[in-house]
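User: Sequence recovery, please. Input:
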């Protein structure tokens, strides 16, 4: 029988997993595989590569589970692992060998599916916002995505993007400022309403 896990029980779920509980592993997979896929597809249009990298992340989790440390945020752990896998996979030509993360592609566009918007007028505004987002740098797009779509805190965002807390806040702020310049509407704030954490 599969153990029931509370939404905010990442620590318990992770501890059960690293102790060898296969049901905990299934819950981790089910809870995060779709968000990992969406996140990965922002780095490359090669969907098969993203799927392969996600597969590798989960295979390595299962293989090395007994040696893994603790975590209270499984999503953050998986996002960081997947990002490393994708960079390694697309870096066969040594493009990012100097860890020039500023030029790592991150293709983020707002879609009606992301925001679950069904009203036609809102879809039109989303298209306008999508156009504004296309003017952001890849790093700004990734930061906006992690902060407002994936709902990570600035500290967590910084860990995924290898930034300190203040740099993470600054990157999001600069992205929002750029959005305000090219899309001067309160719609930006209804869609990308910042969390206080």
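Assistant: Recovered sequence (197 residues):
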């Amino acid at each position: 029988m599969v153990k029931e896990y509370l939404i905010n029980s990442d620590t318990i779920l992770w501890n059960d997993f690293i102790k060898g509980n296969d049901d905990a592993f299934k819950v981790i997979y089910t809870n995060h595989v779709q968000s990992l896929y969406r996140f990965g597809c922002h780095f490359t249009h090669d969907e098969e590569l993203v799927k392969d990298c996600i597969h590798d992340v989960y295979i390595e989790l299962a293989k090395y589970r007994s040696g893994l440390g603790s975590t209270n945020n499984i999503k953050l752990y998986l996002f960081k692992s997947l990002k490393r896998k994708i960079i390694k996979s697309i870096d066969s030509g040594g493009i990012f060998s100097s860890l020039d993360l500023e030029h790592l592609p991150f293709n983020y566009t707002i879609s009606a599916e992301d925001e679950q918007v069904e009203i036609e007028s809102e879809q039109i505004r989303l298209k306008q916002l999508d156009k504004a987002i296309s003017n952001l740098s890849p790093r700004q797009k990734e930061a906006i995505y992690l902060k407002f779509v994936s709902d990570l805190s600035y500290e967590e965002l910084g860990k995924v993007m290898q930034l300190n807390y203040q740099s993470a806040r600054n990157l999001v702020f600069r992205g929002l400022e750029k959005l305000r310049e090219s899309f001067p509407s309160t719609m930006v704030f209804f869609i990308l309403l910042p969390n206080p954490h």
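The two ends are 36 Å apart (CA to CA).
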